Amino acid sequence: MSASTAPTTFFREIDHNRRQSWLLVGVVVVVLGLLGGAIGYATGVGWVGVGIAVAIAVLLSLGSFFAGDQLVLASSGAKEIDVANPPEQYKQFVNVVTEMSVASGLPMPRVYVIDDTAPNAFATGRDPQHASIAATTGLLEKLDREELQGVIGHEMSHVRNYDIRFTLLVAVLVGSIALLADFFLRFTFWGGGRSRSSNSDNDRGGGGLQALIFVIAIVLAIIAPIIARLVQLAVSRRREELADVSSVDLTRNPVGLARALKAISDDPEVLEVANRATQHLYIVNPIKSFEERSKSMWDTHPPIPERIRVLERIAGQMGVSFPPELEAVAQSGGGQGA
Amino acid sequence: MPSIWILLIVIAVIALFLVFMYNGLVRLRNMVDEAWNQISVQLKRRHDLIPNLVNAVKGYMEFEQETLTKVVDARNAAVSAQAAGPGAAAQSAQAENMLSGMLRQLFALVENYPQLKANENVMQLQEELTTTENQIGFARQHYNSVVREYNTSIQTFPNALLAGLIGFRPRDYFQIEEADAAVPAVDLSLHT
Question: Is A144 on the interface with B (CB under 8 A)?
């Protein structure tokens, strides 16, 4: 009872995520528009550059909204499981997802498995009617039924809160802008070398190219911190902590999720299919070295001890005893919580 | 002239308010019915699975015939209570709890028979019944939270003024308070 997240909490969360999704699309349109304007200015085509760039941005946004989940799932190597008739080894997984869909009153999501021994899971899609939940084979093998239930409860809460829509847009839009930026940066170095050599042959062409490179470099310098900020926004600690609490609201079992979080973060295996664009989707950040290298500035997830501490507090309110080994983890991270 | 406009605006506002109120109540009532159906589906699935389990274990558990008979009786009582529909939620809940208790006893007994634990078919049935058991618990939890929302909505101002007159009555909870406490206990006894 005490752990209950009132309906108003997640309605507010849904509104918040809808607003942020629109804001993100707006930012992407402006950023690409600027880039297009810069290219248009440097190449002399003028406003046509802005028009083309904005059209690309709008198409990109529509594409990620409607097909982004398939892109993310395919790039993670996820294979769909037939929920009506699952293979024997995935039966329990499908059963647990069904349980969480019943508990939340949401439609049954599509279920995917990633063939990787590192335990992790994520949810994606544009709304609860078009949602998918993916887990690695490592997760299914290493967690027991209660732990798995906690993880799937967490993912189901992301579905209910529309976190999946915003994080999906971030994954695809930020991913493709980063890719575009990368491409132009490489082009700049490459093209820069070439323009110097061609300078003697054709002064005018080299000059135009150099102006183009200069302008794009400036625009990229503006874009880079915006991208960084967007990824940070996508996985605010609040969003992850709310999903943890809502998971307990569904399962009524804070210990299962706490044990799962410990097991996932203790596991030494590295999830190979995760990358910069998709890391924020997972229940525990899969890019471990990345997380350790720069703890405070780049954290996409709250630290595990902090998350377990929150679950311990809920267990206390529910009158459920918390195992000592988890208590030890909760105590260990005292200094880290910022 | 302006007074007619004011009157019209007041009437329009009241009409709009009534439309929104009515639609909101219908939406909530449908959610309650849907949640109830969800429970019914799971209960029916459990009712269907039990004879299979009893048949599968009967040969091995000759000395537990009494328990098996009790499970079947509890199952039949639950089936007839469910047929009474949403109006009899309280009786149905009681019969289902009795059945859950009997099933727990049966699963505890299964632990004493190594041949049963090695039987693939029995293990599959047990996973099926475990998930059904959990889904019943979760469906009940969801039903109760939807009923709470619906009851609160028709019992608070301003809906309380009209809801009763146009046929919106409060619904029974599936099982008051105990349901929440019982769920973790079932979980622990079944999967460890």
Answer: yes
Q: What is the mean pLDDT of residues A138-152?
A: 94
Shortest Cα distance, chain B CAs vs residue A281, angstroms? 26
Question: Using the beta-carbon criterion (under 8 Å), do A252 and B142 form an inter-chain contact?
Answer: no
Among the partner-chain residues B130, B142, B146, the one whose CB lies closest to the CB of A103 is: B142
Query: Do A99 and B141 make contact, defined as CB atoms within 8 angstroms?
Result: no
A214-272 per-position pLDDT tens digit? 777 667 766 666 666 666 555 667 788 889 999 998 999 999 999 999 998 888 877 87
Closest Cα in chain A to B142: A103
- The minimal CB distance from A146 to the residues B31, B142, B191 is found for B191
Q: Which of A155, A240, A291, A306 is catalytic?
A: A155
Rounded CA separation B89/B87 (Å): 6
Active site residue A325: no
For the stretch B139-182, pLDDT in tens is 888 888 888 889 988 888 888 888 888 888 888 887 644 444 33
| Residue A247 touches chain B, beta carbons under 8 Å | no
SS3 A121: strand
Please tell me the distance from the alpha carbon of residue A302 to that of residue A245, in angstroms, as a whole number. Answer: 14
**Mean pLDDT for chain B overall:** 80
**Which of B131, B146, B187 is nearest residue A98 as measured by Cβ atoms?**
B131
Contact call for A252 and B183, based on CB within 8 A: yes
Write the ipTM.
0.73
- What whole-number distance in Å separates Cα of residue A289 and Cα of residue A40? 40
Of all residues in chain A, what percent carry a pLDDT higher than 70?
A: 73
- How far lies A279's CA from each of A90, A247, A271, A290, A308, in Å? 24, 21, 10, 10, 21
The predicted-structure confidence for A152-188, as pLDDT tens digits, reads as follows: 999 999 999 898 998 888 888 777 776 666 666 666 5
What pTM does this model have?
0.78
Kindly compute the dihedral angle of the four CA atoms of residues A173, A109, A281, A240, in this order, to the nearest 10 degrees.
120
Which spans in chain A are helix H? Answer: 7-43, 47-75, 91-104, 137-142, 145-160, 163-169, 175-198, 203-234, 237-251, 254-266, 288-293, 295-298, 304-318, 324-332
The arrangement of strands across the sheet holding A131-136 comes to A78-81, A110-114, A131-136, A121-125
Amino acid of residue A115: D
